[in-house]
Write a structure and sequence with these properties.
The complex is a heterodimer of chains A (289) and B (156). Chain A contains 10 helices and 14 strands. By secondary structure, chain A is of the alpha+beta class. Chain A has 3 domains: 47 residues, Uridine Diphospho-n-acetylenolpyruvylglucosamine Reductase, domain 2; 111 residues, Uridine Diphospho-n-acetylenolpyruvylglucosamine Reductase, domain 3; 109 residues, 2-Layer Sandwich (Enolase-like, domain 1), CATH 3.30.390.50. In chain A, strands 4-5-10-6-7 form a 5-stranded antiparallel beta sheet. A 4-stranded antiparallel beta sheet of chain A has the order 11-12-13-14. Chain A has a 3-stranded parallel beta sheet with strand order 1-3-2, with helices on one face. In chain A, helix 9 packs antiparallel against helix 10. The N and C termini of chain A lie far apart (51 Å). Chain B is α+β, with helices and mostly antiparallel strands. Chain B has 2 domains: 74 residues, Beta-grasp domain (Ubiquitin-like (UB roll), Roll); 67 residues, [2Fe-2S]-binding domain (DNA polymerase, domain 1). Chain B is 32% helix and 16% strand. Chain B has a 5-stranded mixed beta sheet, sandwiched between helices. In chain B, a hairpin with a 2-residue loop joins strand 3 and strand 4. The longest helix of chain B has 14 residues. Chain B starts with a strand and ends with a helix. The chains are: A alpha+beta (289), B alpha+beta (156). At the A-B interface, helix 2 and helix 5 of A face strand 4 and helix 3 of B.
Chain lengths: 289, 156
């Protein structure tokens, strides 16, 4: 399992990285933690002649708060830093818990949030909760920076809106409203070191009378990209959910899912589990209120 | 494909190595430096038998490009014992509790356990099992490994 030969490039600035991407167009891949890429190269599924290692560009790996209390997360932030950051413990704990479901301790010490998102597996565990929290992706290219809502970042399995000479540099997560609750639930055959066969993120915000001012239900692993269960959300918005409404919303979310059958799970089981996990996520977030 | 010279520390000693870009830290440790504690199990980041500490954090050496180890501080199982006649408390606990059968997972397990106890000095059984989830063992069924880690935590 030997990787094919390549040249390892170490740009020191984003501009340099972009120039290299342009120069070696089609023959280069970006590497950060390498937890996906090194394996793909060992299996010779991809064999880029040039690896553009962006971990030598300073300042892309930090977590910070902005003036309004929202979160800024550098794309090169290791997953383990997100898992354990004290900045997430208060309002963004659901994100930390979601990231904790990825791989193992060892994988999370190398793997980055940017890598998880740019690899764009339909089952990426960081995506549903970030979409539910209305995260925005900041992308750097030859024309400077641009912003994309994370819900529009994914275009298909393994595909994003990134152009060949663009790099994801940071995520911005706005401050949640004062009364809100969030959760990510993952169903997988193994308790660790496994992909999600179904992922469900629920983010609720409450009006003063405890009705649902807003609802976001984001499903992972059951469509070519993470998707919002918009019909299920519409059922709940503005209401004070009782158990009958929760069951109905969960059932509708399962109908909105478009899973496939593969080695890990059948599409029938995935549909069933969307129903189960959505109901469970709704119950648990409503109990947090 | 040009080789590159890198320098790194392993278990407190400095080394220079000429590495090919398409090699990993595991290749560097085992094949070049002959430090064979870390094992090549799956070579794909799944089994954890290659786990080493890189700047204090457990990582799969088979996933780290050798070039990326430039300037880093690596600890392998060979670096655990405080002296030639003494064992690390985790090593002692593993021996006392029967947590070693074939021994193949043991170097990686010890490194992961050491990092776990440094992060969390009194882990619950659940936290231990979650902490070693990236280290597979085909012999023991994990019971004695978990007991040994708990015992070592209580001793220190």
């Amino acid at each position: 399992m030997r990787m094919r030969p390549f040249t390892h490039l170490k740009p020191r600035t984003l501009q340099e990285a972009i120039s290299l991407l342009e120069q070696y167009n089609g023959k280069a891949k970006i590497i950060a933690g390498g937890t996906e890429l090194v394996n793909l190269m060992k299996e010779k599924l991809i064999s880029p002649e040039y690896l553009i290692d962006i971990t030598y560009v300073p300042g892309l790996d930090k977590i910070g708060c902005d003036a309004t209390g929202g979160l800024k997360i550098g794309a090169l932030c290791p997953l383990s830093d997100i898992e354990s950051s004290s900045l997430l413990k208060d309002k963004y704990d659901a994100l930390a818990r979601a990231v904790q479901t990825i791989g193992s301790v060892q994988v999370r010490n190398l793997g980055t949030i940017g890598g998880n998102l740019c690899h764009a597996s339909p089952s990426a565990d960081s995506a549903p909760i970030l979409i539910g929290l209305e995260a925005r992706a900041w992308i750097f290219g030859s024309a400077g920076e641009r912003e994309v809502e994370l819900k529009n970042f994914f275009t298909g399995p393994g595909q994003t809106v990134l152009k060949p000479e663009e790099i994801l540099v940071r995520l911005e997560v706005p401050t949640p409203p004062p009364r809100f609750a969030a959760i990510y639930l993952k169903q997988s055959p193994r308790r660790a070191m496994d992909l999600a066969v179904v992922g469900v993120a629920v983010v609720l915000s409450f009006a003063p009378d405890h009705s649902l001012a807003d609802v976001r239900i984001v499903l992972g692993a059951v469509a070519p990209t993470p998707i919002r269960a918009v019909q299920a959300e519409a059922l709940l918005r503005g209401k004070k959910p009782a158990s009958g409404l929760i069951s109905e919303a969960a059932r509708v979310a399962a109908e909105e899912a478009r899973p496939i059958s593969d080695v890990r799970s059948s599409k029938e089981y995935r549909k069933d589990m969307v129903d189960v996990l959505t109901a469970r996520a709704l119950q648990q977030t409503l109990a947090q209120a | 494909m040009k080789k590159e010279m890198i320098t790194l520390k392993v278990n407190g000693e400095s080394y220079e190595a000429l590495v090919k870009p398409n090699s990993t830290l595991l290749d560097l440790l085992r094949d070049y430096l002959r430090i064979t504690g870390p094992k090549r199990g799956c070579d794909a980041g799944d089994c954890g038998s290659c786990t080493v500490l890189m700047d204090g954090r457990p990582v799969n050496a088979c996933l780290v490009l050798a070039l990326k180890a430039q300037g880093r501080d690596i600890t392998t199982v060979e670096g655990l014992a405080p002296g030639t006649m003494k064992l690390h408390p985790l090593q002692e606990a593993f021996v006392e509790h029967g947590a070693i059968q074939c021994g193949f997972c043991t170097p990686g397990m010890l490194i992961t356990a050491k990092a776990l106890l440094e992060r969390n000095s009194q882990p619950t059984e659940r936290e231990i099992r979650a902490g070693i989830a990236g280290n597979l063992c085909r012999c023991t069924g994990y019971e004695k490994i978990v007991e040994a880690i708990k015992a070592a935590a209580e001793k220190t």
